Amino acid sequence: MSLLLLMLRADEERDPYRRPTRANILVAMRWLVHGCSSGDSLVFHFSGHGDQEEDKDGDEQDGQDESICPLDWQLNGAIVDDEINEAIVRPLVQGVRLHAIIDACRSGTVLDLPNLCQIKKNGKPQWMDHSAPNGAWKNTSGGHAILISGCTDDEDAQDGYGHETMAMGALTYSFFAAAWFAHRPPTYGQLLQKTKAILLDCNRDSQIHCDLPASILPHVRKVVNFSGVQEPQLSSSDKFDINRKTFML
């Protein structure tokens, strides 16, 4: 089994081939899935701006394509969910697992996966059919793709500020803190619940202290100020019991 991790949030990167431009991000996405085979575990993390634009091919239930905004989006355009799905979802073959953690506004269904998990008021999960209305194929080639996103398609994702006033997304901190501090491998349901709880706690107490180990602080900074609370989302290529299936990269 091999684990490939692609984390994208490098606005200050000086190497032109590593800067998060539209072209570089698309190249990196294709690199991530190229040659993947059974037993591979892939991780794609994006922390940045997200947006929506008019759906022009009829594959969105709400008439809007979700997108992530690369560094040069104003010049070369955003990367819409259709492109993301084509790049890192459809190539996944049998036995390959992809986790995408997208920390951006309007990111709820940004991988265009056909199954969206919603938590009802009684706390029970319910899978919703999010297939393309025009019948477009949005699934994998036999593999399993899971998206954990920062908020719904009509919400804003919040920023926080950590050491050296380094900006970062609320989901990035809350998700990694929830996974890192779990006493045992959590189920997906427990992970979502804990992530949301940390978001709520940080919103109530801007001075909350949940330091992560020094080994990962350069990648995930402590958040000390959130300006709001969002609803983390989970979507998947396949339905599964989120309260029984253990989260594992």
Description:
With 249 residues, the protein is an alpha/beta fold. The chain has a domain at 3-157 and 231-236: Rossmann fold (3-Layer(aba) Sandwich), CATH 3.40.50.12660. The chain contains five helices and twelve strands. The strands form three sheets. A seven-stranded mixed sheet has the order 1-2-6-9-12-7-8, with helices on both faces. The protein has a three-stranded antiparallel sheet with strand order 3-4-5. Strand 7 and strand 8 form a beta hairpin.
What structural category characterises the helix and strand content? alpha/beta
In the sheet with the most strands, the strands line up as 1-2-6-9-12-7-8
Number of beta-strand segments: 12
- Residue windows where pLDDT falls under 50 for at least 5 positions: 161-166, 206-212, 216-227
Brief digest:
This protein has 249 residues and is α/β, with parallel strands linked by helices.
How do the strands and helices of this protein lay out in sequence?
Layout: E1 3-8, H1 22-33, E2 41-47, E3 49-54, E4 64-69, H2 73-76, E5 79-80, H3 81-88, E6 97-103, E7 115-119, E8 125-129, E9 144-149, E10 159-161, E11 167-169, H4 170-180, H5 188-204, E12 233-236
Parallel strand pairs: 1-2, 2-6, 6-9
Antiparallel strand pairs: 3-4, 4-5, 7-8, 7-12, 9-12, 10-11
Helix pairs in contact: 4-5
